């Protein structure tokens, strides 16, 4: 019996809850540095709380054991008194009435035990859910560590984005920890209410004991009077029986009031636990959705960075070209470009992976006033003059730009007018996907 009462008290002390505050707005690159909570701090706080719970459990167990022993002694005393009254010729109906009331009390006590067992099962379910949340938090922390280890192959701006996502998760974890303490205070208030009920039960037990003692004293006096007054009329015996019945009815009414009050408190506790469990499940689902979205974004960025695209090409022949696409069809190096045949044939680079690209060209010619363009889907996005000379000296015109390319975009070099293009290593085109 003591362990079942302890289960009820453990629910009030160890249950966890989450009452999330509004998210804090973080600005700058170091806005959440003082909000980060490590897993070791959470585990240390949990261990300290478990130690306090163990001390409280021992105290409550000891108190319940003493209370149980006292109640057993009172019931034994009442049983002995009933046996003594029966041996001293107390009317049979009085004894049967007391026995029936005792059985009713025992049945009601069993009902209370079943209710406490149900409350304990609900608490175990909530505790398992909290452990699941902690495990998910640990897994997310491990994923963040792996992402940080991969940070040396990402651009600086992408690393900053990952850091902000990790800081947001840290703020949410800290908020959950703070509101968990607030929920513990709520359960502490419920525990205080239970202590008050226990005090009321103790007072009622004491009053019941006093009533039983008075009843025993009155019964003993009445039996003594019966021994010395054999001429007592039936009316007097009936009055005495009614007085005893009134005392018993008073005791039963008090027990019924206590049962009603206890049932009301158990109902309130159960409603509060149901509301808390629903709130926890809702917040867990929301957090899981946010975490999944964050991880999906991070995974998408990782996949995009893993798509390496690069090419360096040279003209395979030199000569005079006039208002035409410049054929840099001697590809010295390429990665991530599966269809090089189409490029060598047309001179047009076709984008297959969306991203930010670097386009660099260096063209050598001796023609004075030679001009070439970088064309994107037929629109010029760069114009480069090679030189103005009258001695037919070889000059080089170079250009480097960055541009966002979408799938199926095409880039090529186009000559303006007629001029001589040098081949081999003196003219080159490089295209690299940098992000």
From TrEMBL:
Keyword Signal: yes
Coiled-coil features, chain-numbered ranges: 95-129
Keywords of the record: Coiled coil, Signal
Domain C1q positions: 343-416
InterPro entries, A to Z: C1q_dom, Tumour_necrosis_fac-like_dom
Family annotation (SUPFAM superfamilies): TNF-like
Keyword Ribosomal protein found: no
Signal sequence extent: 1-17
Identification of the protein by name: C1q domain-containing protein
């Amino acid at each position: 019996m003591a362990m079942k009462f302890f289960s009820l008290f453990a629910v009030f002390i160890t249950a966890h809850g989450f009452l999330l505050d509004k998210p804090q707005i973080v600005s700058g690159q170091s806005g959440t540095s003082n909000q980060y909570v490590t897993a070791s701090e959470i585990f240390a706080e949990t261990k300290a709380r478990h130690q306090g719970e163990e001390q409280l459990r021992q105290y409550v167990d000891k108190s319940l054991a003493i209370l149980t022993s006292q109640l057993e002694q009172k019931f034994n005393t009442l049983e002995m008194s009933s046996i003594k009254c029966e041996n001293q010729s107390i009317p049979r109906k009085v004894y049967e009435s007391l026995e029936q009331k005792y059985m009713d009390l025992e049945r009601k006590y069993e009902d209370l035990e079943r209710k406490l067992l149900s409350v304990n099962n609900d608490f175990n379910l909530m505790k398992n859910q909290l452990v699941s949340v902690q495990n998910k938090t640990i897994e997310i922390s491990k994923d963040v560590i792996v992402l940080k280890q991969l940070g040396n192959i990402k651009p600086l701006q992408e690393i900053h984005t990952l850091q902000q996502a990790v800081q947001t998760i840290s703020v949410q974890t800290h908020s959950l920890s703070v509101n968990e303490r607030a929920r513990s205070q709520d359960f502490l208030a419920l525990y205080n209410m239970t202590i008050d009920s226990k005090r009321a039960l103790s007072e009622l037990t004491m009053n019941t004991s006093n009533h039983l003692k008075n009843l025993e004293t009155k019964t003993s006096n009445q039996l003594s009077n019966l021994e010395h007054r054999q001429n007592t009329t039936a009316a007097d015996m009936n009055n005495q029986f009614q007085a005893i019945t009134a005392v018993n009815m008073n005791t039963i009414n008090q027990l019924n009031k206590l049962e009603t009050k206890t049932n009301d408190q158990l109902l309130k506790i159960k409603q509060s636990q149901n509301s808390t469990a629903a709130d926890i499940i809702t917040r867990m689902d929301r957090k899981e959705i946010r975490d999944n979205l964050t991880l999906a974004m991070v995974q998408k960025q990782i996949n995009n960075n893993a798509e390496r695209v690069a090419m360096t090409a040279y003209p395979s022949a030199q000569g005079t070209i006039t208002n035409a696409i410049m054929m840099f069809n001697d590809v010295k190096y390429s990665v991530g470009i599966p269809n090089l045949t189409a490029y060598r044939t047309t001179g047009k680079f076709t984008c297959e992976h969306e991203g930010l690209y670097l386009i660099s060209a260096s063209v050598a010619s001796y023609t004075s006033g030679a001009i070439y363009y970088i064309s994107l889907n037929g629109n010029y996005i760069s114009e480069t003059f090679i030189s103005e000379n009258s001695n037919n000296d070889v000059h080089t015109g170079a250009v480097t730009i960055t541009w966002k390319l979408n799938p199926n975009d095409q880039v090529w070099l186009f000559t303006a007018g007629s001029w001589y293009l040098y081949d081999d290593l003196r003219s080159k085109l490089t295209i690299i996907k940098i992000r």
